[in-house]
Every structure is written in C-alpha cells, then in structure tokens.
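Workshop exercise sheet. Pairs work together: one partner reads the sequence aloud, the other fills in the structure field after running the prediction. Swap roles for the next sheet.
Pair: D.N. / O.F.
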Amino acid sequence: MIASLSLILLCQLVGEVIVRGLVLPMPGPVVGLLLLLLLLLARDRFNVLARGPLQEGGVENASRGLLANLSLLFVPAGVGVVQKLDLIAEHGIAIAVVLAISVVVTLLVTVATFLLASRLMARWRRVP
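Structure field:
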C-alpha cells in the first residue's frame, strides 16, 4: 500500500511540476490524476507495466483506503473555519451566494461532461 500511495503522490507531484513549468491555468493534482489515469489505462493494455504498485489492483486498493478515510482530511479545514468565524459573520451572505452559484455551475458542468462522454462512448461503440 505504501508503494501505491507513493505512486499516487508521485503522479500528483509530476502534475504539479508540469503545470508550474508550462504555466498552465489548472491545478497540478488534476494533471497528476490524468497522468495516473493514462498510466492505469496503459497498464491494462500492456502487461509489462503490471509490476510493483500497478499489479493486482494495488493503486485501486490504496485509493479505496484513501476514500474510506476521506472525512479525516476535512478536519483541518473545519478547524480553519472555526478560527475565522468573525470573517464568516461579516461576509456570510456573500459566501453563501458564492457557494450556491458554484454548486449550480458544478452541477451543470458535470451534466454537460456526462452527456458529452456518453455521446462519445456511444459513437465509439458504433465504430467497428
């Protein structure tokens, strides 16, 4: 599991280096996640890559472990919110409006992405 977590963090680090090196307007962990996805897809296609943390679902098991304990990662954020209650009281309405708008935008982008992906997959299945 340590090797698998190290691979996940290494992909995140490489994504961060790429984003900062190329001055891309996106988060480094997103690029790292895409790199990990490409690595896993390559592993499924080429058996020679199924070694170390990439063999027998190692990365998948480590990811499940992270997701099972994801709530622990929100504790520092909660402590930060409690420390800044005066700012929340002062700008609470603006924060609530921004949160509501961002939730709606996120839902719309998620739906659009799902529709686009499902259309592309349906088209891909039809092509022989």
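Discussion prompt: The longest helix spans residues 85-126. What would you look at next?
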